[in-house]
Specification:
Elements (H helix, E strand, L loop, with lengths): L1 E7 L4 E7 L4 E9 L7 E4 L7 E4 L5 H12 L13 E8 L10 E2 L2 H9 L8 H14 L5 E5 L9 H4 L5 H7 L8 H15 L7 E7 L3 E7 L2 E5 L20 H11 L3 H10 L2 H6 L5 H9 L3 H25 L4 E5 H6 L1 H8 L11 H6 L5 E2 L8 E4 L4 H13 L1
Parallel strand pairs: 1-6, 6-8, 9-12, 12-14
Antiparallel strand pairs: 1-2, 2-3, 3-4, 4-5, 7-8, 9-10, 10-11, 13-14
Helix pairs in contact: 1-3, 6-15, 10-11, 11-13
Length: about 400
């Protein structure tokens, strides 16, 4: 049973073709620079040479048509015919308060996704473009929407209500939603499987640290709090996003620098975080390299990043009334032993103790990294959001 998983952005479409029966990747790739010079389509098939094709790709319809062409290509292809695709799973960023689970896409669902554009103007419109393109290219193939916000929809009201006039929540649905839900869900289930536990026995903190970073408190399998909020800006320090901030800072900077709301949004989303503090890079690899060369700004950015993560770990252990497991995932979580070590430093009093050697070895692989004596088990688990999307899609199209 082959499912096509699509993640459509403004100028890119990431895809994976997954065989759900044996949970294996058949092929994956990306179309980048859609509508720009230098557009490129790539495909990787496990055990084969990667394929790269450049050429004009005007819009999402052409992009997805090209993906189907390469998947069914005589020489490089992995499908005899596109009819082998039994369902399409779309990553959709914002489902608002409408969706606490994945859903089969119909007109009502499309309307709701459209309604959520005002909460995620940079993401939902492009997710919709991908859905509309598939309707034209693969009519009749059922499609499923899997929302980044869905897993966090069970948060209690006292975790999602902001301390501003309640009428603003009633009027505009301004509240905390949380994102990266599919990733937090996947690693929390995977760590349960590895430990052979029942999900209701575990209080888990999952740290998704990529370009965007968020942390979630998962009590007995349910997300009861997470660090991203109304938008992905809240919470941890990120590559280019500020994370938590006194709201008065924004007003003050807007006044002093004479910024429009859109300029302030750009400052907070694109020019803050690691790149804002270091002044040079949003990429943790560069930050680590610069620290090794004695760059004090890079070191400050790294310290702010790790300190905030540590504070959230302590807070979420308290929110859950105890902690059994911590998981690190995402590009930084999976590949940066230095970040993991620094963020957990000094938490031994909470029963959190790293095995320094195992931590250094754990790069891009599934591995337990806690010391023998650590009461809290600590793991690195590479995330696999696409697999969750494929499984949800298969279940709903059956
Ligand atoms: P996205 O959120 O866009 O999916 P990723 O999950 O791929 O991004 O994470 C990107 C981040 O992971 C970047 O900050 C990158 O520097 C970091 N990263 C990747 N590999 C390493 C590494 N070996 N050491 C430190 N950081 C790494």
């Amino acid at each position: 049973m082959k499912i096509l998983v699509l993640n459509c952005g403004s100028s890119s479409v990431k895809y994976q073709l997954i065989n759900v029966e044996n949970q294996t990747l058949v092929a994956k790739g990306i179309v980048s620079k859609i509508g720009m010079p230098g557009a490129l389509l790539t495909m990787e098939v496990p055990g084969k040479e990667p394929v790269k094709i450049s050429g004009e790709i005007l819009d999402h319809i052409v992009a997805i048509s090209n993906i189907l062409n390469i998947l069914t290509h005589e020489e490089y292809g992995v499908l005899k015919d596109k009819s082998e695709i039994v369902g399409i799973g779309h990553r959709v960023v914002h489902g608002g308060e409408y969706f606490s689970d994945s859903v089969l896409i119909n007109n009502e669902v499309l309307k709701r996704i459209r309604d959520c554009i005002e909460y995620a103007p940079l993401h939902n419109p492009h997710n919709l473009k991908g859905i509309n393109a598939c309707m034209q290219i693969l009519p009749g193939v059922p499609m499923v929407a899997v929302f980044d916000t869905a897993f966090h929809q069970n948060m209690p009201d006292y975790a999602y209500i902001y301390g501003i006039p309640y009428v603003l929540y009633k009027r505009y649905s301004i509240r905390r939603y949380g994102f990266h839900g599919t990733s937090h869900y996947y690693v929390s289930r995977r760590v349960r499987d590895i430990q052979k536990k029942d999900i209701t026995e575990l209080n888990t903190i999952t740290c998704h640290l990529g370009n965007g970073c968020s942390i979630a408190a998962i009590k007995k399998g349910k997300s009861i709090d997470t660090s991203m909020g109304f938008t992905p800006l809240e919470g941890l320090l990120m590559g280019t996003r500020s994370g938590d901030l006194d709201p008065a800072v924004v007003l003050q900077v807007m006044a002093r620098e004479e910024l429009t709301p859109s300029e302030a949004t750009t400052m907070l989303n694109k020019h803050s975080g690691l790149v804002g503090i270091s002044g040079t890079s949003s990429d943790m690899r560069d930050i680590e390299e610069m620290i090794d060369k004695g760059d004090s700004q890079a070191e400050l950015a790294f310290n702010v990043f790790c300190y905030r993560l540590k504070k959230y770990i302590g807070a979420y252990a308290a929110a859950m009334g105890g902690l059994d497991t911590i998981v690190f995932t995402g590009g930084i979580g999976e590949n940066s032993p230095r970040t993991r070590e620094k963020s957990l430093e000094g938490l031994e009093f909470q029963g959190i103790e790293l095995d320094i050697k195992k931590n250094k070895e754990a790069i891009g692989m599934e591995k337990e990294i806690s010391s023998e004596n650590s009461r809290v088990k600590i793991f690195v688990i590479p995330t696999n959001e696409e697999l969750v999307i494929a499984i949800d899609t298969a279940n709903l199209v059956k």
